[in-house]
Design a protein that fits this description.
- The radius of gyration is 18 Å and the shape is elongated.
- α4 runs parallel beside α9 and α7 packs parallel to α8.
- The longest helix is centred in the N-terminal third of the chain and has 15 residues, at 44-58.
- It has a domain at 2-20 and 63-103 and 154-230: TPP-binding domain (Rossmann fold, 3-Layer(aba) Sandwich).
- It is 35% helix and 17% strand.
- It contains nine helices and nine strands.
- A six-stranded parallel sheet has the order 3-2-1-7-8-9, with helices on both faces. It has a three-stranded antiparallel sheet with strand order 5-4-6.
- By secondary structure, it is an alpha/beta fold.
Length: 231
């Protein structure tokens, strides 16, 4: 079994998803204006005014029981790996051993000019110290969080690893994802094409609802803990 997780698994930790009306991350802001690679290059101050708030909001967030349920599945030998679209680092914090972060992570930031890399706490310190609110590399250029922005390709190694895991899975357990953002949205199709099955645990509809061997639409914590209890 391989798990594929999206923003919905982190909602119980107090992290908003992207598209829920009124509460989603993109509910009150155009992502193309603040989370596109061109926006970062064009106006790093505006970019970091948005991302700085995200960094601050994630400081006190901890894994919830849905994250821990996947750790328990991995420790029991039932789960081979977790593929996540999330950048919040909560799977790693929970103790997942085999993790593929296809959209990167906020755990560090890099300079696009010289390649310098800085850890999260140092990024926060430089962000607070800079008069323009831009964490800078020692070379003076703005740092970019090591997450995949709109307009960027996914890390080739990560998506290749995710595709191989999905194609080899007897069961792809999709948790908290709308399964609409490509290329990750195509991973369940790889599992199905190879003869595996797909299980979906998320509140909203997905393109794979009719193909899923199991479709659960309740709270992700309650659903995953119920699965653990049955096992």
């Amino acid at each position: 079994m391989v798990a594929l997780t999206g923003a919905g698994i982190s909602v119980p930790s107090g992290i908003p998803d992207f598209r829920s009306p009124g509460t989603g991350l993109w509910a009150n802001v155009d992502p193309m204006e603040v989370a596109h690679i061109d926006a970062f290059r064009r106006d790093p101050k505006r970019f970091w005014s948005f991302y700085g708030e995200r960094f601050a909001s994630l400081r006190d967030k901890v894994p919830n029981r849905a994250h821990l349920a996947l750790v328990e599945l991995e420790r029991s030998g039932r789960l081979d790996a977790v593929i996540t679209q999330n950048i919040d680092g909560l799977h790693e914090a929970a103790g997942v051993r085999t993790l593929v972060e296809v959209h990167g992570s906020i755990s560090h930031a890099s300079c696009l000019d010289c390649g310098g890399r800085v850890g999260l706490e140092e990024v926060r310190g430089r962000l607070a110290a800079d008069p323009d609110g831009i964490p800078r590399c020692l070379c003076g250029d703005p740092l970019k969080p090591d997450v995949v922005l709109f307009g960027e390709y996914l890390p080739e190694a990560a998506i290749e690893r995710a595709s191989a895991l999905a194609a080899g899975a007897d069961l792809l357990l999709c948790v908290g994802s709308s399964l609409e953002v490509h290329p990750v949205a195509g991973l369940p199709a790889l599992t199905l094409a190879a003869g595996g099955q797909v299980a979906v645990i998320t509140k909203g509809p997905t393109p794979y609802d009719d193909d899923a061997a199991v479709r659960l639409g309740g709270d992700v914590v309650e659903e995953l803990e119920a699965v653990l209890a049955e096992l």
